[in-house]
Amino acid sequence: MKINELREHLCAQYPDLCPLFSIEFGDGVLLVECGQLLGAASDLRDLGFDRLGMVTAVDRGETFEMVYRLTSRSMSAGIFLKCEVPRDNPVIQSLTSLWPAANWHEREVYDMFGIEFEGHPDMRRILLPPEWEGYPLRKDYEDERIIHRPDYI
Amino acid sequence: MNASSIDRITSDAGEVDAVTLKITERTKKIATDGTPVDELVVNVGPSHPSTHGVCRVITHVDGEIVTKAEPVIGYLHRGVEKIAENRTYLQVVPLTDRLDYVGSMYTNWAYSRSVERLAGIRVPERAEYLRVITCEMQRMASHMMSLGSTSGDSGATTAFIYSFDIRERVIEFFEDLCGSRLTYNYVRPGGVSMEVPDGWFDDILAWLPIARQSLSELDRLFFGNHIARGRLKGIGVLSAEDAVSWGASGPVARGSGVNWDLRKHDTYSVYPRFDFDVPIGSNGDAYDRARCRLFEVYESMRIIEQAIEQIEPGPIKADGIPRLIAPRPGDAYDHIESARGSLGVYLVSDGSPRPYRMKVRSPAFCNLALLPMLAEGHTLSDLVIVLGSLDPVFGEVDR
Fold first, then answer.
1. In CA terms, which of B103, B123, B235, B271 is 20 to 30 Å from B15?
2. Domain ranges of chain B
3. pTM: predicted TM-score of the whole model, two decimal places
4. Per-residue pLDDT tens for B342-374?
5. Cis preceding-peptide flag for B46 (omega within 30 of 0)
6. Yes or no, beta carbons of B359 and A54 under 8 Å apart
7. Using CA atoms, how far apart are residues B349 and B386, in angstroms rounded to an integer?
8. Confidence check: pLDDT of B382 > 50
9. Positive or negative, the Cα torsion across B107, B88, B194, B124?
10. B245–A137: do the CB atoms touch at under 8 Å?
11. What domains lie within chain A, and their CATH numbers?
């Protein structure tokens, strides 16, 4: 499905989500408040985005940007669902109630960024050992083993 | 079966409680300290349980029946996503080889597509064809690895040799093409690294009928064997609804009847120009998943033949790609159908020549999350079949 058709379809079904929709590099992006995340995800699922492809986060300094990739088989389309979590209180709703697939993805985000998911059944580290300190994919993570390359090649 | 140690439950009190309840309900036998009498925890792995990679499965067994299987992953975690933040866009390509080391072409390609989308690079047509040809050959090699280990798991070592015969030939073709047998670094942002050697296409076309024959022999030898059927049928049944809600993809989802193949349904590159089918299973068990892989190899051969027929001379790299690619700020995601499912790479650029963030959406990671659900209720020896039928590659799971 073309991205413009997707926008029209979304706006017709959920007019309140329409102003949050934008297009970036040919992909639809829906930027919501973190409080609305579960509702928006549920709406998108009803719209036909039945698969949760991935969950990840990006360190944006003051906030963490949560990125959810949803795909639809019926529409042959994908969409990003994004929201900003404050760095000083990184807590967000879990999507495990909508998609069990979120379980491991959210554990990985917790492992790498220290973002906690409310309502997650098993909030533990997944790739790193339980005794690991710090959250490696945060930009301020320090480890003596990280080799900082110079700016030239 | 590689059960390296057998211990009573002593730690992880929280987990034990849940299992204790279940066992108590079923067997009504509890020791005075509250632990179930006949519950054992068997540690499977972490050193190559049945050659699938470095995975550990904490398995709770009642007799020989698995009551709970918990995969412990991360033994191969090298922090590729973090290392990528400290390298230029082109320097990341060799890192992607080491993710899915059974199918390096896929991770190369998924990453390259993502960079191309981010930097607005148009790839020449010949390069797209070469990518399709190499990736379909990679699918043959990868599925042969999977079928070989599945047959090895179920005790049919002869079939293992047959499938590795086909795989070895593909790897030799890759060696001729780019000098490597496992980590190719062949597909790069903007095209591919090398032109094919003289006579390469002819050699492939001459070999494909032999491979087809060899594959049908493997089909009769392994899938026609009633012991193999007995080991695979009805094991690890996954319903279509669960496959979708757990985000399963590739042969794992298609074995359950989920008709979803990115090459067909969210098509990319030059795939719309080829005539091929998507094999779909119906029962969702280990047998159907293995059958899907087998038939996909036939389809890959059809695609390779059509691609070699259609390919035309031309450039193999896009013009004017700088050594330092610095895309404008933003984020992009692109995905391809790898041998294991939807493989995607998500890249965030801040305008500098290094990725601000790279995330690999690994199909093996999502598929492996199904293991606890699928293995429950089966015997310990079938746990290995279930694990093998999910076809995890731990370089990609752990990243």
1. B235
2. 80-398
3. 0.85
4. 999 999 998 888 899 999 999 999 899 999 988
5. yes
6. yes
7. 39
8. yes
9. positive
10. no
11. 3-118 (3.30.460.80)
The residue-averaged pLDDT of B287-293 equals: 90
A-chain CB neighbours of B348 within 8 Å are 58
Residue A79 belongs to what H/E stretch? strand A77-86
To the nearest 10 degrees (0 to 180), the angle between helices B380-390 and B286-310 is 20
Q: What pLDDT, on the 0 to 100 scale, is given for residue B9? A: 36
In a 13 Å sphere around the CA of B243, the CA atoms on its Cβ side amount to: 26
Q: For position B304, what pLDDT does the model report?
A: 93
Class assignment of domain B80-398?
Answer: mainly alpha
Asked if the Cβ–Cβ distance from A67 to B346 is below 8 Å, we say yes
- Quote the ipTM score: 0.87
> How far, in Å, CA of B264 to CA of B276, rounded?
9
Whether pLDDT at B2 is above 50: no
- Name the closest residue on chain A to residue B361, using Cα atoms: A54
- pLDDT for residue B47: 67
Which positions ≥6 away from B13 have C-beta within 8 Å?
A: none
Element (H, E) at B56: strand B56-62
* Token representation of residue B381: 């020896």
- Torsion angle in degrees (nearest 10) through CA of B211, B216, B217, B223: 130
Q: With beta carbons under 8 A apart, name residues in chain B contacting A25.
A: 117-118, 330-332
CA torsion angle A122 A126 A131 A135 (round to 10): -100
Q: Which pLDDT value is given to residue B173?
A: 92
Contacts of B342 in chain A (CB under 8 A): 53, 71
Adjacent-strand bridge partners of B58: B43, B70
Structure tokens at B149: 């280990």
